[in-house]
Task: structure prediction
Amino acid sequence: MTEPNKPLGMSDFFALEAGEYLERLDGLLAQGDAPSADEFVRLARALRGSALMANQHAIARAAGGLEALARAVREARRAWDPATAQLAVRGVDDLKTFVRRASSWTDADTAKAEAMAQELEQLAGRPSAQVRAAEALGLDAGARAFVAREGAAIASALDRAAQALRANPLAHDPLQHVLRALQPLRGLAAVNDLPPLPDLLEGIERAIAELSRSGIEPPANVADLFQAGATAIARGARDVAERGRPDPEGAEFRRFAELIVKFMESEPDVVSVGSLYYNDSGPHIVSRGVPVARPSTLGRLELVSHGEHLRQAADSLERAPSATQRDLRAHTLGTTFRALANAGGGILTDSVAQFALAAREAVASGVAVNNAAGFAAELRRVGDLLARSSTGDEEVLGTELDARTAAIRALPSAAPVVPIEALAPAAPRSSAPPAPPPRPAGDDSVPESPDLVGSWAAYQRLAQAGIGRASLEELIAPAPAVAAAFAASAAPAALAVDVRTLLYRGERALNRAQELRAAARQASGDSLRALVEEVCDLVALALEPSPNA
Result:
């Protein structure tokens, strides 16, 4: 018993919470029929989590054994029979005893809890391969359900944002809802072990930041980008719930990666002021201005930080197991390159800006993905240079950085160059004409070769055999059987039908109007206008008598 005015401690709170879970388990198991397997797993998992939060690891171990038994029942690895029901009831009773003894726990109690956990886990059997793969990542059923639920919420927010952007490309309010929906899943540490979900979430955040930063009209495919993101997130969440991990090479992820690279490429370049004049004799630019010296926007400590980030990005790009993840990870470097491209005001910072522009071009052109090893190696070298910027000489570092910039611009794409000859269609196997029959001895006639001369020789041979002279009339004349069939089909005279008899008139027009009235209830837009026009025509026809009247 606790004193009335004494606040509850951690152990008291655990006793209350665990006691509530155990009472609910008691009520669930007391049902005559088989209990709800999902509820059984949920309560056992909640009891284990409560014990872990209270630092009662032995009790959490025993609750984990009960949870293993509940999962075996849910996955149909163990039938719910009287023996299983007895095991579950006995396990709940033992856990009640453990909770009551939590304040005076002994080593003997730890041994009993461990023995109970091992017995229940042994009776539960081995889980399925998909469950083992998910649990190896630290994802139990609760974590997978959390990823599925939050992923569905993100997909719904992205779908609404895509619809809003199609109606109004400048509508940014739905994007803030997407950012709020991303927060729960971004805060889950286990999501980093579920590629490409972390790269996908990072790409969505960067795309939203780009749209919020630029004051220009977004590109035309921005709605398609968020729609593809919704489809990819929904696919990933479904895979995690069903198989424990998403497929990094899924078509949905590839589609999103392609669109986000195009989105980055769509940013407008700097336009020369000279291109804005009319194409005439001028005068246009009278004298070129001198750029105003601007202060350096990045200090040496910031350059060191960017250098560390570039080295980590190089490692991440090299470790990407698929082209989809390389696309997504290369795109996430866009913000870093943009921040570096705005640097200036010094020898080193100007060189850094030139490097950032070259790196962005490499990402946009696909070199960073197609030649990931070379691009990552150059990023790592630049990161090492920037890490030395706090103590190194600016001129020396700037010269070395210019060399690295030139190396990035000279990076070849790893995609193989296909010779144009290889694109020609293959010659058919039966293209060679059959060899002409051998001529008898003493025959001086022209051989029937596959060229024009041989064709003429073959024609002469056939003409001598009695096929007659060549005639254009014979070529275009129909065969006798075809001519006879045509004459037979044309023999009966076709009856002429007045087209006005095919119109709706009188009562038939009224019946047709009733049909259109029913169809108009479900129509809208152009189809509704077409129905209204047809009804107006039918009103005039309904006033005329039917031709059969």
